[in-house]
Model the fold of this input.
Amino acid sequence: MIPTTGRGPAGHGGLPAHAMETARRENYDSGEDFVLEYGELRFTFNEADFSERCEQAALKLGFVGGRLGEDELEDLVNLAVNGEILDPASALGEHVNDCWPELVGPAERSLVHWLRRLVFRGAWLDQRVKEGELAVSFDERSGGFRYVQPAEAGSARAGDPIELAPEPSWNRVAYRR
Done:
């Protein structure tokens, strides 16, 4: 079970408040290995899904520069789940412990907080796509994908991109092989 915290008007996982304005939401579920709860939402993940989401979050935050090896990924998952790495299995775990004072801080500034937040946000967005509340489109300018308002009959906002809260960069203390 991974505790999460959130704040007021930005909504869940750094999403705009208007994105949360629906009655009852379904919970994201890919397995029972990891559980992440926020308010009334309960997201469950299988090990592969959760590990991949942790790796993607670390990439997005600039904390890692590329795909991780098995032991590195184990340390990253332990960091996200436990909030620390007691017995490092890799150089990444040792790096986290060496840089700990720069990685920990007030709840909303810690690397652990942001890893958890991005894992949650990604699962939340994926669930909204599954339920038809959001769509995914390719942005030719950036060469990446983005979440947009779905095409609905008569909707003036169809195709409008969803603005996600920006995440901080951890490049200054990034793990480098």
